[in-house]
Design a protein that fits this description.
Number of strands: 0
Largest sheet: none
Distance between the termini: 20 Å
Helix content: over 70%
Number of helices: 12
Strand content: under 5%
Structural class: mainly alpha
Length: 290
Amino acid sequence: MDRSRPLYAALWMLGAVASFSAMVVAGREIQLEMNTFELMLYRSVIGWLTVAAILARSRTGFTQVRTAHAGLHVKRNLFHFAGQNLWFYALATIPLAQLTALEFTNPIWVALLAPVLLSEKLTRPRIAAAALGFLGVLIVARPGSAPLGPGQAAALLAATGFAMNTIYTKQIMRFDSVLCVLFWMTLAQSCFSLALALPGGIPLPSPELVPWILVVGLTGLTAHYALTSALSWAPASVVAPMEFIRLPVLATLGMLVYGEPFDPVVFLGAGAIVLGNLVNLRGERARTAA
């Protein structure tokens, strides 16, 4: 691999981090007026319209969204939809650094669930990664020193939902393209959100909220595109650790924008979770090379 390619991957990851940061601020602003189902409705509709416009202008058009694996798409989108709603709920209720640290357990949940759902072997590195991740969660959440709130529980459940999403995405990507996945994701989640938001009535956003809704709708796509592009320039074992830069970035954002206190214990727990992820990555690389 050319030496410059990891640099390109890092630049794409900076774009992903910028997208996540913008989504965080926009998501908090929107929840001053809307609940998570209403937020997800606007986000998903904007995402679907954007993907549909890209497909309409492409050479092969909407033939790209044909799939013979509708059941996998339904399962993936149910878990992803649940994870996203839980993540947005946690976003509004706990500090950004804590949310990000707990979200880092996602790859560890993948390592634990893959042997059950993908018939992969539960290796020693995966067990070690899970143990380190659990230790990190205990440090971050500190049960006993303060009551565990619904925000922390939502963050952990969101990470589990994202892990299931990752597992089903790995299966789907054997057959379907990225645009196919994004099309059905945004369409399905528009329908889910509409069904859950409709009973209470769907509010029209205030003029001040419209830019934030556009930001949330577009950054969900740009973050995914940036992550995918980073993986095209470097292997996952190189790209995945780059994502951990989100913790100091979002912790700093929380301090500067929302006045959240700097909590070194959260960084200590995140360090254990990150170490668990790195142990798992190293084990996977060794297993693949064997």
